[in-house]
């Protein structure tokens, strides 16, 4: 991962009215309301994707499913505070949301064919004639709670459909698949809440206008569409592992959301090598999180990290996922290769003992199948460790001449390191100061400035 050595958001259940109500937990909140809010948040956090997926399948309308799910959550915050948490919270939310969906169709037209079809599908005969629908059993779930159904997978493919912009895909995935609120997404990416809400609203309208079906794509389309899903998860995790801006190096809330979604995807698609490659990359990178910042939140460089603090359970999970990617595929793809690089770090006892020549080879392979200036910059860092700074500086200078990383703090940061190792102190200080000016993350900027100041 280009910025690999770079815990969770509050779990508000839904946006709009539910956002405001759920986020209103204050010190003078009545005990019943506080308990209800915690219960709703917990259920929504775990089951939101399956709830919205089931509602979309029943109604045939993705936007309507999301809206009535929000209404059910808002009603739960009031009802559960008054009556206590129901025996089956998920069943209660589904039953309530379905009734709201029927109300929506009824308001559109009492004789609407879609409402009739929905009533028949739900076994509520006579509803189209104006009779009240028969009450549903809120203790019955439309899925086996021990089995993840295709509804979640279909929801992922809808949220990450290529007709949407990258920003819209990310926002919609975090909203409907991860269950985060607009406020949480805005806080994570440092954008205004109205911007996030507008992206989500436009995304749902675009999905409806494009007639995107709520279904897992057929096999011939799945691989191409799966790439979009994986790229969205990659963007989310990358922002979490090293925030592009703000005053925190890590946004582990986002990183762990991406890991959770990648695990879900791996369970749904056990034969896709790159899904396991991505999961391995996430696990192996996140394993270093405990050692990447000090008590004051300042970044700790790789060579200074206490490797005893690395999460060895995450390392084992990552290596197992990498092994699965190797077993089910025909050679590692871009995510698998990045995971293999992360594995070299995870298995090494120190920076000096790391297999840098192998990392160079892996970056060369990655550059051939997924070329990018950031991959080339990372290869230069590996070359510096394996061969020496002079050869690495040649690679970096070629990148600088190409202008492909213009405006990024990464290139002058690496160039400053290389010039420092070559004893070209004045040039190194100038490059590090330039990198600090370009860097939008205050924690990273402070490290760059300290390095520049240390050069005198």
UniProtKB/TrEMBL annotation:
<feature type="region of interest" description="Disordered">
    <location>
        <begin position="1"/>
        <end position="31"/>
    </location>
</feature>
<dbReference type="Pfam" id="PF08281">
    <property type="entry name" value="Sigma70_r4_2"/>
</dbReference>
<feature type="domain" description="RNA polymerase sigma-70 region 2">
    <location>
        <begin position="50"/>
        <end position="109"/>
    </location>
</feature>
<protein>
    <submittedName>
        <fullName>RNA polymerase sigma factor</fullName>
    </submittedName>
</protein>
<keyword id="KW-0731">Sigma factor</keyword>
<keyword id="KW-0805">Transcription regulation</keyword>
<dbReference type="InterPro" id="IPR013324">
    <property type="entry name" value="RNA_pol_sigma_r3/r4-like"/>
</dbReference>
<dbReference type="Pfam" id="PF04542">
    <property type="entry name" value="Sigma70_r2"/>
</dbReference>
<feature type="domain" description="RNA polymerase sigma factor 70 region 4 type 2">
    <location>
        <begin position="157"/>
        <end position="206"/>
    </location>
</feature>
<dbReference type="InterPro" id="IPR013325">
    <property type="entry name" value="RNA_pol_sigma_r2"/>
</dbReference>
<keyword id="KW-0804">Transcription</keyword>
<dbReference type="InterPro" id="IPR014284">
    <property type="entry name" value="RNA_pol_sigma-70_dom"/>
</dbReference>
<dbReference type="Pfam" id="PF20239">
    <property type="entry name" value="DUF6596"/>
</dbReference>
<dbReference type="InterPro" id="IPR046531">
    <property type="entry name" value="DUF6596"/>
</dbReference>
<dbReference type="InterPro" id="IPR007627">
    <property type="entry name" value="RNA_pol_sigma70_r2"/>
</dbReference>
<comment type="similarity">
    <text>Belongs to the sigma-70 factor family. ECF subfamily.</text>
</comment>
<dbReference type="InterPro" id="IPR036388">
    <property type="entry name" value="WH-like_DNA-bd_sf"/>
</dbReference>
<dbReference type="InterPro" id="IPR013249">
    <property type="entry name" value="RNA_pol_sigma70_r4_t2"/>
</dbReference>
<feature type="domain" description="DUF6596">
    <location>
        <begin position="225"/>
        <end position="325"/>
    </location>
</feature>
<feature type="region of interest" description="Disordered">
    <location>
        <begin position="122"/>
        <end position="141"/>
    </location>
</feature>
